[in-house]
Amino acid sequence: MKFKVLVTKEELDKRTTELAKAIERDYKGKDLVLVGVLKGGFIFLADLVRKISMDLSIDFISVSSYGNSTESSGVVRILKDIDSDITGKHVLLVEDLIDTGLTLKYLKELFNTKGCASVKLAAILDKPERRKVDLKVDYSGIEIPDKFVVGYGLDWAGKYRNLPDVCVVGDGT
Ligand code: IMP
Ligand code: MG
After folding, report:
1. Looking at residue 28, which CATH number applies to its domain?
2. Known active-site residue 155
3. Of the ligands numbered here, which is closest to the C-alpha atom of 60?
4. What is the DSSP letter of 116?
5. What distance in Å separates the CA atoms of residue 1 and residue 6, rounded to the nearest whole number?
6. Which domain holds residue 127?
7. For the CA of 41, the nearest atom of ligand 1
8. Which residue positions in the chain have pLDDT lower than 70?
9. Which of 111, 137, 112, 113 is CA-nearest to residue 124?
10. Is this structure's pTM higher than 0.90?
């Protein structure tokens, strides 16, 4: 399979450091729980937390959209829920990429019903052209064009999550 690098690992590292510093500044002294959205969010979460120098907790939620696999339907099925008590805590949802925004909108509304002190969103990649719902991404990483990408946690039919750069499949056209 041919790949064209769209965002290098160096750019990802630089942006992740900046986001980590912003999170550290905003949540200093607060009870913070980062909730990684599986599977794609695992690499960004792992990079992010190692750059945040404060006490925090980590949990994971695994979701899948109903319908076909390339278009998000907005109906999100929880495959694995968080397993810690987040009542009164500040929750930061950590995603790989925001496309239509339907997944994170659903998750944000869900977490808003759980009695958290706050619910905010972080995503390392953003395709703003694709947005279908109004969504505030509190910690947005790097904007990319409307192209299907893999690597840095993102998959194509379950593969290529381990590529260190974000790549477009094919020659990038
Ligand atoms: P949405 O924002 O609800 O449309 O869905 C976002 C999710 O769809 C992301 O978290 C990814 O898991 C997946 N996704 C969207 N675009 C891509 C892509 O270009 N490559 C791989 N997965 C993608
Ligand atoms: Mg995802």
Report:
1. 3.40.50.2020
2. no
3. 2
4. -
5. 16
6. 9-146
7. 10
8. 66-73, 172-173
9. 137
10. yes
